[in-house]
Amino acid sequence: MRVVPLFETLADLDNAGPVIEQLLLLPGYRTRLHGPQEVMIGYSDSAKDAGTTAAAWAQYRAQERLVDICREQQVELLLFHGRGGTVGRGGGPAHAAILSQPPGSVAGRFRTTEQGEMIRFKFGLPDIAEQNLNLYLAAVLEATLLPPPPPEPAWRHLMDELAADGVSAYRAVVRENPQFVEYFRQSTPEQELGRLPLGSRPAKRRAGGIESLRAIPWIFGWTQTRLMLPAWLGWEAALSKALKRGEGELLGQMREQWPFFRTRIDMLEMVLAKADADIAGLYDERLVQPDLLPLGAHLRDLLSQACDVVLGLTGQSQLLAHSPDTLEFIRLRNTYLDPLHLLQAELLARSRQQEAVQDSPLEQALLVSVAGIAAGLRNTG
Fold this sequence. Notes:
This protein is mainly α.
């Protein structure tokens, strides 16, 4: 039986190297290891635990350490990326994601998960499936034969600072604000997602706060209201502080020359372009108690700050100005999405007032609105 350790929370990722080193030093284990040592890197719970800024850097550093340890131990390493379809769960364009991995971590092999609606989007039709497999193949070949250069020491130092600022800003909202959990449950369809036949697993692991939620409903809830909070929260503080310290030129250099950082900023920009503070505000007006409304306004203000700092970093007048085709796709989809959001906010309000039973017309309509919004937003749904 293969032993495939999974490292997912921030603490686990930071400790991945020593754990695998200890494992490979066990004589009984080493003699039974036939073939590569597989290690799974988790994206969903690490982002939920620490925010995407700190999680992305911890995943990168863990992979670097694992590559070094397995090289020293003369063991072949196979990294298994537990990515979801959404940006907050490690999702995004596969080609860019593979090319942004640490040098040496993609050595002719790349194992990853495709989950949920992304299976149908990417592999539902033969021609599209072939195109996506070609993208994977091309990226794995390029990352193997022409791996990216290791990051400069100055980039590493700045990334350490960004991660530290990002995780503290993220946890200040998600863990330390006593109103946050209740606001999340009122302003998003999180309560209803547990009743709808949507996932392969229950929405919760056990009773409790954010830590008790599975990553999918956590991401899904914020996506449905277009606040997209898990994908960007923490970046606004991390990048703002770096710019205030006069590190704008270094950030620009990292974006130009380091595929890892460029991919993170590109994904952040795409998520922010799909977010909509006005729509998130409509959900608040219809669903949230008055004493929680200031928190919603604060989160939308943080979203605005994230947009401003990314525009400052990219030097553009609007998000995705460099990609007019993507902007046009988003505008086209919004024509259909905006009415769905309005309907869903009303359906949620009625469902909570009436305590609708499963399979009722109200619940069916709610399910359709959830599926429609997810389909329209693609890699944030």
